[in-house]
Specification:
mainly beta, 1 helix, 7 strands
């Protein structure tokens, strides 16, 4: 399911990313968080102690709630990371 706005939007070239192993279409210029939200994923991880759900909160890299693993690198801020073709995004939902 694609939840992107469709009217009057000019997008860059499409690229393929992999979210938790699934193929997802993304567009150059989007962030990993934008791709996750557009694909219907609101929970990116859970907290270590209380296992509380976390996703995008501030959207500008300050709060660190959107941490995911990208291309095998853990603790990457999804809201600050532009997508690239072939990117592997791994969430850790509860």
């Amino acid at each position: 399911m694609d939840r992107r706005v469709t009217s009057d939007v000019v997008r860059e070239d499409a690229v393929t990313v992999y979210v938790d192993g699934a193929v997802v279409t993304a567009y150059r210029g989007e962030t990993a968080a934008g791709v996750l939200l557009a694909s219907g994923r609101c929970v990116f991880r859970s907290t270590p102690r209380g296992h509380e759900s976390r996703g995008v909160f501030c959207g500008v890299g300050i709060c660190y709630d959107c941490l995911v693993t990208i291309n095998g690198i853990p603790f990457v801020r999804a809201c600050m990371t532009p997508v690239t073709d072939g990117m592997q995004i791994q969430t850790v939902p509860r």
